[in-house]
Design goal:
Elements lengths: L2 H11 L3 E10 L5 E9 L5 E7 L9 H20 L12 E7 L2 E7 L16 H16 L21 H5 L5 H14 L5 E3 L8 E3 L6 E3 L6 E3 L2 H8 L5 H19 L6 H26 L2
Amino acid sequence: MEGALRGWLEQATGAKRIDRLERIQSLWGGYGELYRAHLTGAAVETAIVKWVRPPARRGGDASHRRKCRSYDVETAFYRVYASRCGDEARVATAFGQRARENEWLLALEDLDAAGYPRRIRDPRGAELEACLAWLAAFHARFMSTSPDGLWSEGTYWHLATRQDELEAIRGTALFDRAPELDRRLRQAHHRSFVHGDAKPANFCFSADGRRVAAVDFQYVGGGSGMRDVAYLLHGSASGAAERRALDFYFEHLRASLAPLPFDAVGVEEEWRELYAAAGSDFDRFLAGWRM
């Protein structure tokens, strides 16, 4: 990391110096790197640095434009909305953000050090319930909030951004149903923010697996919370287990909405009706993506 960027990180975190940068992983598609910075003289000993620099070989295709826009969205989320999430929808504290042409920098709280050191590939029982409780709190927190600076419609698979995948399934029942599924989800009366990529890999778990914090807000935006819930449960819960998971989510959503001026009964009625549509909409994307 160049000296100028070390200087930016020192300023963002209040550190006297950056002792060591530990590379954690590359970002999807070679778009950058994730580091753990070891600090001296800051309020924290470590911080996470997300340094995005899209590869020069990429052209102006739709996928590349969508990816670059996602980093603008994530930067906006941490700058404007992250501090409003509260303990029940825990996210990393943002120490600083910087967006320049073809480069994005985020300096974030190290959630491992904050008490969320575990990653669970296939959460079950209390671990899955922790993810559902997080989603319920997040959806309640941003109910009826305009997603200014974010995606107007959250998730990376909604129909408007996946026309190539739709064309790939032309002639199928999912192709025929796609516009109606999309219309129902987009025109939901009760809208909130959706995380947009609420898979297990984007939750950090406490040591006992009963609390989570979420990461990766590149596809956060407006929508029905059922997009997140159907995505999280896709392929991991069915039948009675799926019904129990959905009931657990709505129990926590009602509790989170109780002190707020919203019609919790109306939200639940509408969103339960949309759950199957949200699952089928994700199936539509997967069918085209796998072709």
